[in-house]
Amino acid sequence: MSMKRTKKSSGSARGGANEGSLGFNPPSTDVPEWAKAVEGQADGVFTPYVPAKTFARDTFVDHAKFGRGKVLAVDGGRIEVLFSEGVKKLAHGVA
Hints:
Elements: H1 34-37, E1 46-48, E2 60-63, E3 67-75, E4 78-83, E5 86-91
Parallel strand pairs: 1-2
Antiparallel strand pairs: 2-3, 3-4, 4-5
């Protein structure tokens, strides 16, 4: 006797809309608006983003592709940065 099992549809190949880029670790719900967090800051507060540097929470960064952003979270060798187009996970402290 065989039993047919149906696949559960999650809406996409990598997971649902609320899941992180790798299909797990959903994004924070307390993400501030980019305009309130970043706009109006002086040019001198933005540190150029380089993967070899380490960044602390609430640091302002200037990324070559994504532009200006604010570090929301630090988790080991990764940081979550709020950019105008959304939150991105970036490496930091890489030798």
